[in-house]
Amino acid sequence: MASRSDLIAPRSPRGFADRGAAELKAVREMAEAIRATYELWGFEGLETPVFEYTDALGKFLPDQDRPNAGVFSLQDDDQQWMSLRYDLTAPLARFVAENFQRLPKPYRSYRFGPVFRNEKPGPGRFRQFLQFDADIVGAPNVTADAEMCMMMADTLEAVGVKRGDYVIKVNNRKILDGVMEAIGLGGEENAGRRLTVLRAIDKLDRLGPDGVRALLGAGRKDESGDFTKGAGLDEAAASRVLSILEAKRGSNEETAAALAEAFAETATGREGAEELATIAKLVDAAGYSGRVSVDPAVVRGLEYYTGPVYEAELTFTVHDDEDRPIQFGSVGGGGRYDGLVGRFMAENVPATGFSIGVSRLLAALSALKGEEETRADGPVVVLVMDRDRIGDSMAQAKRLRDAGITAEVYLGGSGMKAQMKYADRRRSPCVVIQGSDEREKGEVTLKDLVAGAAAAKAIADRAEWTESRPAQVTVAEDRLVEEVKAILARQA
């Protein structure tokens, strides 16, 4: 076939990914488990648009020359900038302010959907990804933050993470804010440097203490040669900031007490330590000790957090194809953001919440469960042995669907071998076969593809395979539904 010069090379945009049927199903099941947990705690659903007016997103406001700084933006026909949402929290703040009078306070809500970030993509780092958030707006004290940490623990267990394979870490930004006041980084004029400090500490797990120290100082060059400008702290100031990480003790209350002793030099730092002590007592009293842990290394890199911050970290290790250990680390986090709704209103509205990174959590659970547990999740495939009798095949598929069994008829034009290969690629649990001989006898042949694959590993001789026909049974056609259900039950 002659080549054409007008063909377009098929390619997905950089930083974006297609999602197949298996992943979509897994996301749907995970989202349902998360939703059920949130609703059990009294939260109600909310959906906001993927676009917001850019000034509503806060610090990512683009200018005329650089409209895509951090967000994907465009101008509406009235010349107003709109941007794809960067997270699900800023849209919630706008919604609450817009509907403040009619909402119950505190207002508990959850949201699920894609968010978009115009950042440099890399391995496992996408420009579009899914988040599932829960927030309480209008609760002024840290009892709401303690409840958020406890609900985050329940949510991880609801989606299949075992107790002991995760920890919810909680800290308080007021402690770090107090330290930055003490080293001369207080005030609005130092907001940019404070944010650089926060983002540096937030990279501790990935870069280690030396990498963080470089970002607190002049800056750091990564493996690719890209240079990240640092916060410009001197050695003494950088050491004081890093000393926060040394306050971790054996229990939550002991850690909170150590933070209070070491960082009570400012009223802000003292208040942060007292709030952590309250959270420690609440989570321990509710039976979440060990699941929720006070940890001074948690910072969170976003600017709008004003108090407690928390992070959900997976602690189990899996191995890749080359038996190298992999740890997934953080799969979600959040904190208190008392000033965000106040950007739209004269009165201050306290709020706290957390976000789960659905794609990352799904990848971790898939690695933990392995392939075998999700092997046969496709439809039962009814093969077509006689094109003139395809109506019979459609009737068989309908009987299965009427019984609540996912089923389809093979609609391609290939023969038996290709049809079997198709069913395997569809991850079918079994196939229905009816040739002319079976039809005359009023029978159907069912082949269990999962059991057949397992048996094939133990049969090396082709003659033995042909003679034994593993995991294959012929039954009366009126028992079709009953026998398929039995196969599915054995696989389950």
Structure description:
This protein has 2 domains: 21-50 and 85-369, BirA Bifunctional Protein, domain 2; 381-491, Rossmann fold (3-Layer(aba) Sandwich). Helices cover 38% and strands 19% of the residues. It is built from 16 helices and 20 strands. The chain has helices at 21-40, 89-98, 143-158, 173-182, 191-201, 204-216, 235-242, 252-262, 267-285, 358-369, 390-402, 416-425, 436-441, 449-456, 462-468, 480-491; strands spanning 44-45, 51-53, 73-75, 81-84, 107-116, 128-137, 166-172, 219-221, 227-229, 292-294, 308-314, 318-319, 325-326, 329-336, 351-357, 380-382, 407-409, 430-433, 443-448, 472-476. The longest helix is centred in the N-terminal third of the chain and has 20 residues, at 21-40. This is Histidine--tRNA ligase.
What distinguishing features does this structure have?
492 residues, alpha+beta, Rossmann fold, elongated, cytoplasm
How many helix segments?
16
C-alpha geometry: elongated
Oligomer: single chain
Please bin the fraction of helical residues: 25-40%
Mean pLDDT comes to: 87
CATH topology of the largest domain: BirA Bifunctional Protein, domain 2
What CATH architecture of the largest domain would you give? 2-Layer Sandwich
First-to-last CA distance: 48 Å
- Point out poorly predicted stretches: none
Radius of gyration: 28 Å
Let me know the number of strands.
20
The class by helix and strand makeup works out as alpha+beta
Q: Total domains, how many?
A: 2
Strand content: 15-25%
